[in-house]
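User: structure tokens for DUF6697 domain-containing protein, please.
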Amino acid sequence: MKMATPDTVHNEEPEVIVIKDELQEVETTALRALENGKKNGRMVVEVVVDTYANFLKRKKEDLEKVKKLINPKAQKIEKMKIKFEHVMDRLGSAALDAYPIALDLATLEATVSRAFMSSTYGGNMQMTFPNIGDEHLAKHGLNDFMYLNTLYQPNAPQVPGCSGLFFDTEIDSRWPGKWRVFTRLSSGAWLFVGFYEVNPTRPLTKEDWASLDPQVQRTWAYQIRKKSWGGYFCARVVARQELGRKPTRAEWMGVFNDKRHLRATPEDIRRSLATGEEQLAVSTMKCVGYDEDFQRRLCEQEKRSRRPKNRS
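Assistant: Done. Predicted tokens:
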């Protein structure tokens, strides 16, 4: 009888691998385990996944967290709101937890006017990223301001320390570093919400666009045509119409400089988003810090600015 050698002995003891990762990791982990298994052995891969009930529970918890991102004082154009699933797809559950801030509520929620910020810290009152003049810069040394209007940025950070989304018509725009973010809640009321990192994520695709209510689509198209921040977008739409192809930057800049971009209609804009020729850029906004002393100082400065000046 031929004796078995080490080379001919088969290990019949099954190797059990239990996977409790996120759903999207299960398949990859299981395949890797199979590839790395014993050549002559037998392997049993046991995959443990969450139940549908747990999935629904997590989704409900995420929805409750998203609700906390919304400031009831913030004025919005209701028909510019983006669907919950589009927000979650880009933010993710981890980003829904707020940055901790140890500041009394009255101070935390105190707002200032854009006119006050312009006169005290400098910068154009209409720009998202205003340039700060040398005179003001010499006084305070701050040149990291970002202003978001919830009328046109319905998912901007609205509660100090909370995350948000920033929508833009320019896919290639980048904003490295940290930004001192103010969000407009209502006329004359801008709230300091913290320091944020702004990172590009998936744009709003034609499929995402198609899923929006037609009234939401029309409102976005109208605002892009109406507002100055939509000028480059309109220029690309008109240039594509004129050329019958995707224009180069030089070509659509020529359209913009000649003011031919004003020929674009809201329906032209809506159609370009529906076909995917143009997309709305989306960036995540995650709070990475908060300057409590700065907010206290703002409150004091704003109070002093409202005091009547003594007449001698």
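User: Anything notable?

Assistant: Residues 1-31 have pLDDT under 50 and may be disordered.
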